[in-house]
Specification:
heterodimer; A: Udp-n-acetylmuramoylalanyl-d-glutamate--2,6- Diaminopimelate Ligase, Chain: A, domain 1; 5-stranded mixed β-sheet; B: 5-stranded antiparallel β-sheet; 5 helices; globular; binds adenosine-5'-triphosphate; binds magnesium ion
């Protein structure tokens, strides 16, 4: 699945990084706790979150996450958008709540990691 | 590369916009040095969790990162308040983070367990009223360095 497919499945809109929309995404992680995200190791992942602060971008940077979807129509501020641009991280905003956004992507075949021990 | 490289950073307490800058800088340097991506991720995640802990739970301190051929060593020293029971602090889910920190996405009590998981060696020395020193090592296997 590509970032473009995710955008379409969620009826989301680009905040930045549209030019990177052909990048492949292999897994997804949905969480509002950043240490929970940091416990998740999967290559080329998308992060779905209801959080909206600079540490979300930092967390994505540490994990090499390729795309962040802000659920519930959350909009990052200019500082966050600038940080994401510098790091080639695509930002999407979706009006869906977390459960529905994750469900829509799951339905399209995207999966999470192994169960937490 | 035979001699080691040492990087030093200051970490301020409670500065949530800058929190993570040291980890970000280390990650970029390791990438430029051509270090294996899996090794970089182990370093980045464990260092970032440690740096965030310094911002949230401590009065600030310093980070020292020593990069050598066979290992990356991270030493995080803070000025207090120290951890009373380090064994308890290590338990998954244990947190003293207040609600305003939880609303930022931290305070799951998973930081120290993550640091243990991603680093190859973790040691915590803490004296209440004095400060905490966290030492982590990530080894670079010969065949990929
Ligand atoms: N440098 C530190 N100085 C003082 N106390 C600390 C320090 N690091 C951790 N602690 C204590 O250990 C507890 C557990 O830390 P840990 O990183 O595992 O979880 P957390 O920071 O509370 O939440 P999370 O890391 O999931 O965001 C903290 O809540 C805090 O009480
Ligand atoms: Mg922590």
């Amino acid at each position: 699945m590509t970032i473009k497919d995710i955008k379409e499945a969620l009826g989301a809109r680009y905040i930045c990084g549209e030019e990177l929309e052909d990048r492949e995404v292999h897994a997804a992680c949905g969480s509002d706790m950043l240490s929970d995200v940091l416990a998740f190791v999967k290559d080329r992942a998308v992060l779905l979150t209801g959080l909206c602060n600079p540490q979300v971008i930092r967390t994505a940077e540490m994990m090499d996450i390729v795309c962040i979807v802000f659920v519930r129509g959350k909009m990052p501020d200019d500082v966050m958008i600038e940080m994401a641009k510098e790091r080639d991280i695509v930002l999407l905003s979706s009006g869906h709540r977390m459960f529905s956004a994750c469900g829509l992507l799951y339905e399209k075949g995207l999966r999470g990691g192994a169960p937490y021990r | 590369m035979n001699e080691s490289i040492t990087l030093n950073y200051d970490v301020d307490s409670n500065d949530f916009t800058r929190a993570g800058e040291a980890s970000s800088s280390v990650k970029r340097k390791l990438k430029l040095m051509g270090v294996d991506p899996d090794i970089i991720r182990k370093v980045a995640i464990s260092l970032y969790e440690g740096e965030i802990n310094m911002v949230i739970h401590s009065y600030g301190g310093t980070i020292e990162v020593i990069i050598s051929t066979d290992m990356i060593e991270m030493i995080l020293r803070d000025k207090g308040p120290g951890i009373e029971d380090t064994e308890l602090a290590m338990q998954a889910g244990y947190t003293t983070a207040p609600d305003n920190i939880r609303s930022l996405g931290f305070g799951a009590g998973m930081g120290l367990p993550n640091m243990k998981k991603y680093s190859d060696d973790l040691k915590i020395e803490s004296v209440v009223g004095k400060g905490t020193t966290v030492r982590m090592k990530v080894y670079i296997p010969k065949n990929i360095s």
